[in-house]
Amino acid sequence: MQLRARQIEFYASLDAEDEIERPRHYPRTVRFLLEEKLRRALALLQPVASADALCVCGGSGMDAEWLARLGIRPTVLDLSPHALARTRVRARRRGFETALVRGDAARLPFSDQSFGLTLVHDGLHHLADPYRALDEMARVARHELVVMEPAHAALTRLAVALGLAADVEPAGNVVRRLNARHVRARIRAAGWRRVRSARDLVYYQRWTFPIYRLANRDSIFTVVVLAYRLLNLAVGRWGNSLKVVARR
Q: Is the pTM of this model over 0.85?
C-alpha cells in the first residue's frame, strides 16, 4: 500500500499540461520513437480486428488517443485519479471518446473477455508483480493482447551500469523489466494460442531531448530515421524495448 500511495502522490505532482499534451511538445525524433513503438507492436497483430480496447495503466491518455485515431474505442484504467482527469481533458481537446476507470491493474474490475483488445505501454514495470497484471489483461481480453514494456536485456544492464538507465524510478518503484520467454509462457498458460514477440532499440530520457531536438529539421530527421531503422534492423533483436502480442 505504501508503494501505491507514493505512486499516486508522484503522478499528482506532475505538470498537468505537459502530461495532457505529450508527446506533441517532445522533439520530433522522440515522437517518432514513441509512435514507431506502437506501430511495430500493432504490426505484429495485423490485421487488428478489435473495435474496442482497454488501456491498462493508461496514464494521461496518450495510448488511448492513438487507438482512437485508428478507430478503436478506448477505455482507460489507471490507479491515479489525477492521470484520469488529465485523460478527460485530452479527450475533450482532441475530440475522441473514452471511458475512464480508476482501478488496480493486478485486480481488473471487469468480467472475463470484456474488451476486444487489452494494451499496456510502459505500465507493468511499475508494479510489484507485473505478471499478475499480465494474467488479468489476458483474462479480460476477448481477441487481442498487446504488451510494450522494458525488456530484461544485457543492453539494459549495460545502460544501468553506465548511468543511462535506472533500476528505481522517481515514483519510488523498482523497474521490473520483463523477460520475453516468461511473458509468452504466461500468456499461453492463460489459454492464448498465437503469441508473438519482438525487441527493438528505443531510448529517450528527458536529458536527451536537447540532443534529439537537433534533428527537428526535415533533412536531418530523415537521415536520423533511416539510420535508426538500419541500426534496429541489425541489432534490434537484442534491444531494450519488448513487444509481445497475442490473439486467441
A: yes
